[in-house]
Design a protein that fits this description.
The complex is a heterodimer of chains A (353) and B (254). With 353 residues, chain A is an alpha+beta fold. Chain A has helices at 7-13, 33-38, 49-54, 105-108, 168-174, 178-188, 193-206, 212-223, 229-239, 243-268, 278-301, 306-325, 335-343; strands at 20-29, 63-65, 74-77, 84-88, 96-98, 109-110, 118-122, 128-133, 136-143, 146-153. Chain A has two domains: 7-153, no CATH class; 155-353, no CATH class. Chain B is 70% helix and 0% strand. Classes of the chains: A alpha+beta (353), B mainly alpha (254).
Chain lengths: 353, 254
Amino acid sequence: MTQTQTPHDALALLGLPGLALSDEAARLQWATSTQSQALGKGDVAALAFSALAATGFVDVPFTAVSHGALGRLDAAISAPALGIVRISAPGDLDLRVHLPAGLPHDEVRFVPDEDGGTAYLDLARATAVVVRAGLDAVLLRTTADGVSVHGVTPPEACLSPLQVMPSVATWAGACRDGWLAEQVAPLVSSDDPWPQVVAAGMLARLAMPADASEARAWLAAARAGTADASMIEPRRWAASLPADDRAALSRQAVVECAALCLDIEDVEDAVHASSPGWDDEVRTLAHRRDDLEAVLLLLDAAGDAADLRQALVAVDRAGFLLGLAVPTGAGLQDERLRRAGVKDPDAWWALAA
Amino acid sequence: MTLLEAFRRLSPDCPPEDFAGQDALAFVQDEVNMLARRLTFEESIREDAATEVTVHMLFGGSRTTGALECDSDKRVRGFLRRALSNKAIELWRARRALAEDTIDDADHPIELVDIALSAEDVLTEPDLMREALAIEQRFMDVLVPACAETFTQVRARQDFLTVVTQIRALAFKATTIDEVVLESTGRTGATAEAAVHQRHHRARVRLVEFIANESGAGRLSAEQAEQFRGCVSFLHRRASSAKEAARAAQRDQR
């Protein structure tokens, strides 16, 4: 079995570096032969996970384990030769499992048809997973002698006011794009620094000429060094941010990436033409992804976009899959997403616009 | 200066005396104009699309996630070509007031060309279509069987191949969703159709995961991975129709 060195390495492997680890941790030992025999079951040969899944794991001995770090999740562990863990959610909660990229999910995770709240996980192959049910969330990580469990905290918006806040109200006032000015207006008045930063990025990125003749005028102005200040100033502001502010903004963006990634995975199964309200859910997620794109532009201008770009990989992987679930032709008719697609023809969050 | 260097250097905040910055803008604009001349739209559409795309790239487009991933002239060219193609089609539709479906009735679906938009040395839309068909053929002949091999259960492997064949037939309008639903479930109606959509979605997810894995392991280049992901998108865009699902729901209600 391959292993990750630390819990933080495991979160990085999972593409979720923005998740916070709780203080409580546990180490679970693989079940021994004696424990298996006590359950009335002998050792099981190291069969393929999918072969065991085909039988519903009926003959596989599992030993129940408990620890505060698991929260309300029930866990049971197999023998080391199998490397399988069974996790069950409390009550009627659904269990969500986030796996490392590149693994065929069907072959490392088995959810019985009759019980969506239980999952069997092949930790011999998926050496780190995040399992969630309601507010309980844990990181499971394969170690040399068992499985380490860490509680993980759902990330929250926690950007403190920056030393130099963007003058978004002034820039928005100078913005000649009526639609864009209207979009950023509610963000400008927010007490939370995050929406204000997003608004600054939107001004720098989403302004668009009405037609080709206006586009020619914009090009001429850019060549003359007289481009519209509302689109220029946010970049200048970002480029002049002190290192502490840049780091805080980058950290918050990475945290938001983790939250968005998990939220996307939560709704993917529920997105279908006959599922009521899927369009509003997708629109909200797409706008949050576009918020991050606005912040990306600013962090790029500040020369500090590397962490965010890395964190966006997992978000966009999940988002691409969500995009495949969105019914084609449904058309959200969303101007912001349309503009996002014009700026980046590969943006998955613009495909539903 | 290479195209990649010029693209990276694009900035709307570039005073006239910043010669390198101005050169970068001119370089990218020339490239966009050259790419636009290869499109088979009428001249006014090509010119307007080129101007608007240059402005979009200058004001934010060159700092998007997709743009920042471009690590070669070739990938920048593909990115610009996709932006141009989208813009030209948008202008064309607006000017001709054409409904989306009216361009779908050719021998091959027009969206297929998106797969080949990053290809080098492709001059016209017929060339793009030929290249796209070749890529799609490689997808079906090489990638799909390789992905199927990752299923350890023979039955799961066969189910996967059946589902991909169904999605492809839908994409090329060789069958209808009603026929596929009946063939797959022995039933008709919204519930059966939802089950089929879920099955199709799982197959597409499996393909995307496989492409990511192969790309991560270095067995597919970034360009090949992009093209094959485009093939999966194409299968999705053509095969999973909300209109069809809504029609099925209406039929059920009746």
